[in-house]
Amino acid sequence: MEFPVLQAVHPEDFKKYDTATIRSRFLIENLEGNDEINFTYTHYERMICGLAKPVNNTLKLETYENLRADYFLERREIGIINIGGKGTVVADGQTFSLDKLDCVYLGKGTKDVTFASADASQPALFYLLSIPAHAVYPATFMASKDAAPLRIGSAETANDRTVYKYIHLEGIKSCQLVMGLTVLHNGSIWNTMPSHVHDRRSEIYFYFDVPENHVVFHYMGQPNETRHFTVQNNQAIASPPWSIHSGSGTASYSFIWGMGGENLVYTDMDLFPINTIR
Prior knowledge:
The protein is built from two helices and 24 strands. By secondary structure, it is mainly beta. Strands 1-3-4-11-6-9-12 form a seven-stranded mixed sheet, with no helix packed on it. A seven-stranded antiparallel sheet has the order 2-21-18-23-15-14-13. The longest helix has 8 residues, at 19-26.
């Protein structure tokens, strides 16, 4: 069993891509399947993202040939956020119960991990983001209400949103994983505006709660030469350190942001005024 793999892209090469090529190089799709765990491996900080959807069965986190590891978290850590119905994560005998938007972090060396739903008619859907780790940190649960919810933006600029920060320097401790999510409120569509880049980190955006028959226009590229393409529900984008990462939806939506790299400081970003974006 092996992962599909996304290779890293140089910004000068990116300028030559058409829409189909951009989607093939950065879009992470086909992650959701009943009673399945599906992943994509990226060469951006060697981050792995995926979905676990237990419906009628308990799912076990297995290792993959690409990792050359005896078990998945032998040299890795992982952040898990539930975006579905109530479910449980069991890690080396420790049980965590997650409602929607709750998070659990599992550190390097965790051997046995399983996922289950409380109700098959309303299955849990666990978003998984993993990155290599060189130090061990304890398994930690955080409910969404405890994730320092911060309401920012405004209805006037169509970016009224609440940001939840789970894994970062002042939250759940990790080796190099930073993770949280943003919920756009009704009538708001713009995320991450003004735009920024993370020169010391790579990032993956995972879009969820995108209403049926709606899309998000995801904007990426260097600030002076941007591109866009559309993203549907439960799809993700790999965002290189040189690329902005903003979006505007045809309806309100939510997204999980996750990073890895030099540091755990949430505010480590280089902002670009809106009128400088090209």
